[in-house]
Amino acid sequence: MIDVIDNKYFYLHNKEVAYLFDLLPNQQLEHLYYGEDLGKLSKNDLEYMSLHPNKASGTVKFSKKIKNLTLADRMQEFPTYGTSDFREGAVSIENEDAYLYPEFKYDHFEITTGKRGSLDFPTSYGNDSENLIVYLIDTEHQLELQLSYSIFENLSAIVRKAAIINHGQQEIKLTNLQSTVLDLPNDSYDFLQLSGAWTKERHIIRRPLTQGITKIESLRGASSHQENPFIALVDKDVTNDSGNIYASNLIYSGNFISQVEVDEWGQSRLMTGINPATFTWKLSRNQVFSTPEAVLFYSKHGFNGLMKQTHNFVTKHIIDQKWQRRDRPIV
Q: Which of 115, 258, 268, 277 lies most in the core, judged by the most C-beta atoms within 10 Å?
């Protein structure tokens, strides 16, 4: 289910879904595709999918050493604000009150099978999972970024999380670390949220995407009855049985943010994770901070297809095995 080609292309796929990313010339990770299964990909297929016409107008180049590379219009796996990309980033770090611009470059990867749950905090689990961990290093600031991906048999779910390790001598201050990012090439979707009030939770609310940021969040210390850490981008003409849907769900019940930013070229960036407002985490030497897990879902079969994917995922990979097929006792 996980193929790594030429140590450059990372391809997660099964019968339900395909997820593809690669290395940019600056050794950062570029997102290429998430959607229905693409089957076996040839080297020509991969090279074609990674072609990118640069939009030079109004962009800042990443480096004088790499001709014509800008991150301003690139789809990315885990973007950093300011390094020629001025959309909101997935990580923010400070050091002695100075804002850092980390440059996480690919170092190596690891693939494992099977995934155990944890009683320390909510996670997914499954013997049928394959897991990819990509290790990236910022040598200047002596930081390590670990991006984790899990894919399961017969499900479109991609489970993601991120972790930061401080290998430097100085303490750093982490002010933002999102669980997942999904960049999409266009903005032809409605933003769907499940919002409500006390005893009136989970109303379906849809609104069109537009240039700028559309978001939901909670600052109550819990996900709350007002907002739910689930959002979906749905085709304008989606029905119960047809239409594309891209959804995310955070496996976490504290302060959260789920947002989509649309740039001037109509690209959409979905991010979800711990709400950076009021969040600060200090990391001394060799300390680690890991985000909650987030799940991405894809369906080409409308709302019923999405419900099938989400329900099967929760039943098989979230609910404790003891209670999967048993009635729970009344408390």
A: 258
DSSP 240: S
Question: Which run of H or of E encompasses 47?
Answer: helix 43-49
Picking from 233, 74, 87, 251, the residue whose alpha carbon sits closest to that of residue 180 is 251
Per the CB < 8 A criterion, the answer to whether 87 and 160 are in contact is: no
pLDDT tens-digit readout, 46-80: 999 999 877 667 788 888 888 888 999 999 999 99
CB 250 within 8 A of CB 272: yes
DSSP letter string over 191-238?
A: EEEEEEETTEEEEEEEEE--SEEEEEEE-SSS-TTT--SEEEEEETT-
Place of tokens 């996900």: 223
List, for residues 282-314, the tens digit of each pLDDT value. Answer: 999 999 999 999 999 999 999 999 999 999 999
pLDDT digits 0-9 by tens, 20-53:
999 999 999 999 999 999 999 999 999 999 998 7
Q: DSSP labels for 268-316?
A: EEEEEEE--TT--EEE-TT-EEEPPPEEEEEESBHHHHHHHHHHHHHHH
